[in-house]
Amino acid sequence: MKIAVVILNWNGKYLLKEFLPSVISFSEEASIYVADNASSDGSVEYLKLNHPEVTIIRNKKNAGYAGGYNLALKEVPEDIHILLNSDVEVTEDWLLPILEVFNSEPKTAAVQPKILDHKKKDHFEYAGAAGGYIDKFGYPFCRGRIFNELEEDLGQYNSDEYIFWASGACLAIRKNAFDEIGGLDEDFFAHQEEIDLCWRLLHKGYKIKFVSASRVFHVGGATLKDINPKKTFYNFRNGLFLLLKNVESSRLFYILFIRMILDGIAAFKFIFEGKFNHFLAILKAHSSFYRHYGKIYKKRPKEFIFRKYYLISSVVYAHFIKKKNKFRDL
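Request: output the structure for the sequence above.
Response:
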């Protein structure tokens, strides 16, 4: 089974300089690709000069995470694709546990390693931690991360588990499964498109797995106080897209109604915190959702195999009202 590590880059030459060497050193089993989203910072020239062993795929435009990977992966023939962020440091033998799962579990279509914080290496990182879930109203959380609360890695999540979603920061997926479901949804552009991808895999009867023996370190560091309004826009808009596309009809409108109320509460919380631009971003997110409603609705699957998609009813209630900050306390 052949494997490819595919790094999507957009004006990230400084990240390639720092993190690509670890990928080259510790990925002997894989072919390495950099898919460049029309960078203007000299990234391609840097790769040609310093890393001729890396195959460069040049996209003609910045198509975002979803579009960028969809374009690039058409040119990658290997059986397993690992979608790897350019700000990820990998570790020795990180690919072996991932390959073992794919070789032994034909119905497992996607795998995520343990994702730790590059800046604080004994703690989980926001984007994926030890595997992802969502609640009934589409809010994502992870083993090791509830909203902005990041747990220390004490081995508490070292059990390999089937999960709901694998992080796009380091997502290993079978090429045939990726192609079968039509790849990433480009209407998401960026943020939460990997959750949608995994949900669609689950609707097809595939499984998603977290593998603790594989470790990577991600810079990431997304928190609400650090994000910009554009990221707020995509997170809230795409959360609604997720539900509209994937929740069965009998409960869809109730779920959307409650989700919109919760989003409204979040919007007013931003006002009280003096973050008016983020309040506007949520309004724009809902406006965009309504404009795209018909288009997204048409993408719903014919069969809703994975009906019980949520682990708990409301992670919002558990965290903000009951003050539960750790996954194992949910």
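Residues 66 and 184 are 5 Å apart (CA to CA).
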